[in-house]
Amino acid sequence: MQKLFGEVGSLDKRCYEMYHLSEDILMEHAANGMASYIKANFFKGSSILIVCGSGNNGADGMACARILHGDYAVTLLFAKPPKSKMAQLQAQRIEALHIPTCHKIIPCDVIVDAIVGTGFDGSLDENISSILDDMNQSNAFKIACDIPSGMRFRADVTLTMGALKKSLYLDSAKEFVGAIEVIDLGISRSLYEGDTNWFLLDFEDMKLPFRKEKDSHKGTYGHLAVAMGEKNGASIISAQAALRFGVGLVTLVGHEQKEIPATLMYANVLPKNTTALALGMGLGNAFSDKDLDAILDNNLPLIADADILISSYILQILERKNLVLTPHPKEFVALLKLTNIADITVDELQQNRFHYVERLSEKYPHAILLLKGANVIIAGEGSFFVN
Description:
- This protein is an alpha/beta fold and 387 residues long.
- The protein is built from 13 helices and 19 strands.
- The chain has helices spanning 9-18, 23-41, 56-68, 85-96, 126-137, 174-177, 189-192, 232-245, 289-295, 314-317, 329-338, 346-351, 353-363, and strands at 2-5, 47-52, 73-78, 101-102, 110-114, 141-145, 157-161, 164-165, 179-183, 198-200, 223-227, 249-253, 265-267, 276-279, 302-305, 323-326, 368-371, 377-380, 383-386.
- The strands form 2 sheets. It has a 12-stranded mixed β-sheet, sandwiched between helices.
- The protein starts with a strand and ends with a strand.
- The mean pLDDT is 95.
């Protein structure tokens, strides 16, 4: 797994203070990283248009232009005049090389968005918005420097500096970031990165429950009871998924037996050899509080999903140990309200998924929370993971 950070300004500062690396050195490595990606993927002589803003993101773009100039047909477009100290310094360096500039998006093989980076906190003005629209219309391969500007630039790849940022993994960013690669800034990424409790899951982190025991039978691999409510299709699908994923026995528990697959069992009460519970999928109003009390009168591990998450009964469930909550955004908003954590809209949640996951996890640290979405967030015991 890889570390995720809300901001990297403090990590840059640590480089200055602990490793005696200057801002100019870090920027040079950022630019070299972008240039190396272009050199590795595009033939010499390819046309490269780099669109620069007024701050250090624009300065990264200018430094990249300087490195590529001579081997590639580089052109610069200034969305805004250089303003930061580093942007003005990089501008002097490219002027000395007479790198050509233009005033509108031109046909090219590669277009680099270096307008604003992760430090930008505001709204894009009309001129920059228009430039980004034109950039998105280009047929060129699109590279974002650090982060797509204002999450408006639709990148094929984002070359982010130093470490992975949480903002790259918002659901709303999914359409814009493309592939994500980290550029080292003059020291190993392991030294640049500090401590964090947020992580990005890699393929290697998946540990599947293979049935490796030879002296075994179906009862060796657990017995899941799934509450079957009004919309029985949801509970049947969940039960079948459990079987496919490795559970040995699955029983649907309900008031009346309906047509179910032959691979599943059915009962009116909780089987005595049950080892785990799943509750909420398609539940509707089929179970009274008394019914739920009977099913949950135990310390079995429980997955709480769907309808149970928007019921006031969830407040009793949240006191249990060995609890997994699996809401989608609308259900999570209802859960936040029921627990008096926040009264927000789904849109507000989607823009602040990390924050509200942390809020609920702080209040119920014993529960494992899995917030569904384009990027699934998993939280538990003070650690957070993005899938």
